[in-house]
């Protein structure tokens, strides 16, 4: 789809609703023992991921912010603590929790906004498209065709979204986000190697509430959220929420001065909860989102086709679509790079208390229609212009049974998960200005995929302080690629007919994964844990710019053996929390976007497997509440990765040999022992102080900051290196003590740092996508 997939050589002939969860006043639950599942009065779990009552044990890092009163929350108090998540402090395996207030404070309206809020997490747009790629602890897939299983799975209310476009859609009316690290799938959903992004949206309430928020900032950006929630009867509740986002475009066309990047999107979500009896809860949900935004623009780093000078300002961009390309793709003359995306879906979430266990099911259907028009060379020339049209739908069904009594020595859950996706994609590339490929190309295909998983998880209380854990999962993934066609529209300088049809290709993966762990509560406020987990991810296809059948050979599955140890602790009557972990990953068959040499054509993009890599790192979090109202947070993450066994096409050597001999020869370079280029150091922290103004008002100043080390996605070429950057946000919020409304002002990226969120390759060139500049704004929130 995007430039990562393209031929890279120069070889000729080729609202959030502003519900402010009370953080400083949140308390531990009454049950402070060590169960795997703690039940609420409604029979639902009070902890765990994606709404599953027997979620995997986890240590949670919580992004904390200034407190407020949340009319939709029911808290059970025993003793106050500033950080919450007390039960989770007694369970192992790391999870970063980002609450709804923090999401609103950082204007997180899609998953790209999570990157600087969780350690060792990278969320990058695929080129300038609306699809996203995730990397967690150095494990991820740069999926330029969005038709492969990601290494990091995104869930929304328990529904897995394995397509990058779906995962990158809007986030609004949020309850919170959990970022879980390491191989997963032992307690729910699909098996993946890197981890999960678990997004939870707000549920209906049993009392009537409504509210709105408005956030206005520079570049005419506006984010509006609305919601209403309450009972329809004694056993039926509803919630309706909507949002819209406009403006915010900060890029300029270097040739014409036109602006680019303005948002124009909105969405609706409705939920109805029904309790036919005191043991059953059924939630019906529906969602719709439309995105007609301008696309992000690429900025030129290297142009080997037309020798366009490198853009010194990464907020400059350029575009120039040929009339023939716009006509073929059905776009109007004068069209800017843009999106035209529609997403909708529906689901049913059922839970039933069976007495000895909880039965839960999730049924969901999601549909997307994506049209992205992009200029990936970032110049006025038609070197690498893309038009992507992808229609896809997803059906998923999960059934799960989990032990109910939290005091039983053996906690367990078992379940099954099924999903089916159907995709049709048409990709147009305009190379007519490249010099080496003077044609417009069209690639189209269909892909059907289905996966069936079975899993089980146990947690045994050996003694009061010692617990053992075990889990197993099996997944079968079957996918078919068919109706694959690549054709070229002839031009005066390229009269050669080219219309290739390729036969059906299949890829079947059947694998088991397992895990084992130990938790030891050394003291009441100190726990140590360790685990070994084996995860895998199925293979897939390179479905873009296909010119020879060999490009359609599927990649092999990848696997990850993860070792992790850690500790969790609270001190000084829960005024300081200190958590830490260390991990070691043995990575086999890593799927990456690589290169291949095609005889009589040139160098093309193709997914390949890296035989062996290793990643290791440490993470630490410190939360402090030294005096009432003052909350401090600091997270430190450090990781390193090296290729142990990896040889890749050396496109420079291939080009030099072709110039010298006239022959295309596959020449390789060994990257054994070479650094993988993942950001080594990540820091994120915050400080806020909730000051009382008399007896009725509060004033809360805050400061957030993050640091991200340099990143090199393509080894051996520093033009792909994204320099390290440091971001700082400041703000001030005024509110009544009741918390029913608030008024705030802020400056994000106050230092106006220029940074890149991705750097990728296009035909005969390299381009980058910039991060957001300084944004000055204000926000108003009301909740009644």
From TrEMBL:
Gene3D superfamilies the record matches: TonB-dependent receptor, beta-barrel domain
Keywords tagged on the record: Cell outer membrane, Ion transport, Iron, Iron transport, Membrane, Receptor, Signal, TonB box, Transmembrane, Transmembrane beta strand, Transport
Location of the TonB-dependent receptor plug domain: 92-195
Annotated transmembrane regions: none
Stretch forming the signal peptide: 1-38
InterPro entries in the record: Beta-barrel_TonB, Beta-barrel_TonB_sf, Plug_dom, TonB-dep_rcpt-like
Subcellular location per the Swiss-Prot or TrEMBL entry: Cell outer membrane
Keyword Ion transport in annotation: yes
Pfam families on file: Plug, TonB_dep_Rec_b-barrel
Keyword Transport among UniProt keywords: yes
Topology term for the membrane: Multi-pass membrane protein
SUPFAM superfamilies from the UniProt entry: Porins
Domain TonB-dependent receptor-like beta-barrel: 291-750
Domain of life: Bacteria
Family: Belongs to the TonB-dependent receptor family.
Name this protein carries in UniProt: TonB-dependent receptor
Species per Swiss-Prot/TrEMBL record: Gluconobacter potus
């Amino acid at each position: 789809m995007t430039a990562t997939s393209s031929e890279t050589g120069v070889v000729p002939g080729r609202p959030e609703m502003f519900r402010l969860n009370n953080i400083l006043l949140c308390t531990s639950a009454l049950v402070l023992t060590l169960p795997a599942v703690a039940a609420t009065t409604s029979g639902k779990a009070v902890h765990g991921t994606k709404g599953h009552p027997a979620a995997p044990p986890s240590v949670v890092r919580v992004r904390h912010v200034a407190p407020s009163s949340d009319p939709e929350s029911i808290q059970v108090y025993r003793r106050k603590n500033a950080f919450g998540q007390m039960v989770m402090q007694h369970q192992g395996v790391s999870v970063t929790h980002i609450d709804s207030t923090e999401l609103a404070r950082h204007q997180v309206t899609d998953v790209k906004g999570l990157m600087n809020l969780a350690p060792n997490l990278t969320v990058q747009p695929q080129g300038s498209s609306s699809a996203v790629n995730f990397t967690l602890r150095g494990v991820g897939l740069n999926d330029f065709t969005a038709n492969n299983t990601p290494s990091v799975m995104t869930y929304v209310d328990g529904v897995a979204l394995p397509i990058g476009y779906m995962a990158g859609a809007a986030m609004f009316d949020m309850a919170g986000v959990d970022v879980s690290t390491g191989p997963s799938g032992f307690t729910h959903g699909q098996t993946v190697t890197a981890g999960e992004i678990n997004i939870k949206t707000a549920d209906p309430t049993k009392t009537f509430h409504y509210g709105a928020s408005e956030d206005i900032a520079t570049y005419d950006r506006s984010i509006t959220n609305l919601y209403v929630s309450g009972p329809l009867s004694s056993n039926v509740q509803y919630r309706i929420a909507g949002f819209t986002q406009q403006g915010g475009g900060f890029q300029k066309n270097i040739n014409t001065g036109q602006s680019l990047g303005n948002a124009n999107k909105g969405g609706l979500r409705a939920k109805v909860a029904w309790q036919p009896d005191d043991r059953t809860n059924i939630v019906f949900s529906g969602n719709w989102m439309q995105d007609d935004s301008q696309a992000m623009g690429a900025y030129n780093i290297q142009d080997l086709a037309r020798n366009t000078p490198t853009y010194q300002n990464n907020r400059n961009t350029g575009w120039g679509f040929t009339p023939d390309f716009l006509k073929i793709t059905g776009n109007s003359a004068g069209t800017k790079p843009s999106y035209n995306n529609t997403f909708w879906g529906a689901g049913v979430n059922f839970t039933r208390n069976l007495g000895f266990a909880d039965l839960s099911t999730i049924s969901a259907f999601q549909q997307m229609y994506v049209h992205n028009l992009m200029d990936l060379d970032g110049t006025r020339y038609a070197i690498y212009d893309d038009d992507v049209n992808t229609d896809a739908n997803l059906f998923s069904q999960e059934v799960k049974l989990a032990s109910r009594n939290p005091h039983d020595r053996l906690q367990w859950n078992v379940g099954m998960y099924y999903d089916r996706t159907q995709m049709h994609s048409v990709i147009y590339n305009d190379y007519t200005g490249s010099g080496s490929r003077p044609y417009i190309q069209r690639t189209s295909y269909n892909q059907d995929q289905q996966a069936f998983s079975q899993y089980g998880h146990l947690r045994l209380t050996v003694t009061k302080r010692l617990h053992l854990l075990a889990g197993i999962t099996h997944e079968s993934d079957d996918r078919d690629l068919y109706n694959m066609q690549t054709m070229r529209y002839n031009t005066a300088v390229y009269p050669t007919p080219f219309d290739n049809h390729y036969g059906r290709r299949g890829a079947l993966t059947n694998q088991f994964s397992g895990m084992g762990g130990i938790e030891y509560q050394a003291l009441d406020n100190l726990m140590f844990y360790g685990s070994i987990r084996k995860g895998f991810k199925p293979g897939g296809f390179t479905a873009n710019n296909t010119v020879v059948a060999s490009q359609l050979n599927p990649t092999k599955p990848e696997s990850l053996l993860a070792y992790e140890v850690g500790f969790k602790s609270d001190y000084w009557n829960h005024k300081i929390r200190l958590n830490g972990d260390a991990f070691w990953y043995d990575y086999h068959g890593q799927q990456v976007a690589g290169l291949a040499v095609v005889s009589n054509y040139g160098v093309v993009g193709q997914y390949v497997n890296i035989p062996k890599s290793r990643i290791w790192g440490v993470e630490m979090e410190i939360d402090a509440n030294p005096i009432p109202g003052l909350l401090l947070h600091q997270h430190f993450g450090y990781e390193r990765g090296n290729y142990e066994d990896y040889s890749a096409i050396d496109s420079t050597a291939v080009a030099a040999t072709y110039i010298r001999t006239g022959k295309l020869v596959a020449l390789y370079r060994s990257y054994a022992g070479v650094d993988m280029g993942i950001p080594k150091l990540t820091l994120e922290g915050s400080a806020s102080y909730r000051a009382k103004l008399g007896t009725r008002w509060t004033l809360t100043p805050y400061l957030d900051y993050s640091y991200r080390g340099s990143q090199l996605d393509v080894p051996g070429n520093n033009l792909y290196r994204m320099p390290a950057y440091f971001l700082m946000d400041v703000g001030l919020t005024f509110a009544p003590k009741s918390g029913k409304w608030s008024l705030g002002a802020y400056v994000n990226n106050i230092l106006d740092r220029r940074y890149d969120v991705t750097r990728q390759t296009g035909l005969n060139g390299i381009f980058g996508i910039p991060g957001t500049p300084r944004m000055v704004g204000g926000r108003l929130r009301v909740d009644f």
